[in-house]
């Protein structure tokens, strides 16, 4: 099954409304462009193969 490209313009608009953010209409394309870059980065991370024996990194606190 082929994955369809999400409508990030609509997502940006809906997310801003849900969060109560006032975003000027001329900024929506810039926001959507940033979402495209973030999605591409997330795809790269998600596609990185990990062996079954890989474990999560420990968490250190001060």
List the topology elements:
Elements: H1 8-19, H2 28-47
How would you characterize this protein structure?
- The protein has helices at 8-19, 28-47.
- With 62 residues, the chain is mainly α.
- Helix 1 (8-19) packs across helix 2.
- The chain is elongated.
- The mean pLDDT is 88.
Contiguous helical run count: 2
Helix percent reads 40-55%
Distance from first to last alpha carbon: 46 Å
Number of separate strands = 0
User: What's the story with the biggest beta sheet?
Assistant: none
State the assembly state of the protein chains: single chain
User: What are the low-pLDDT stretches, counting only 5+ consecutive residues below 50?
Assistant: none
> Topology as H/E string?
HH
Please state the average pLDDT score. 88
Strand content: under 5%
User: How much is the radius of gyration in Å?
Assistant: 17 Å
Looking at the structure, what is the overall shape?
Answer: elongated
Briefly summarize what is shown.
This protein is mostly helical and 62 residues long.
Descriptors for this entry?
0% strand; elongated; mainly alpha; 62 residues
């Amino acid at each position: 099954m082929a994955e369809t490209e999400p409508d990030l313009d609509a997502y940006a608009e809906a997310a801003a409304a849900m969060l109560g953010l006032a975003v000027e209409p001329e900024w929506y394309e810039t926001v959507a462009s940033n979402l495209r870059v973030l999605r591409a980065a997330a795809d790269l991370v998600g596609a990185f193969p990990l062996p079954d024996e890989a474990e999560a990194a420990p968490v250190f606190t001060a």
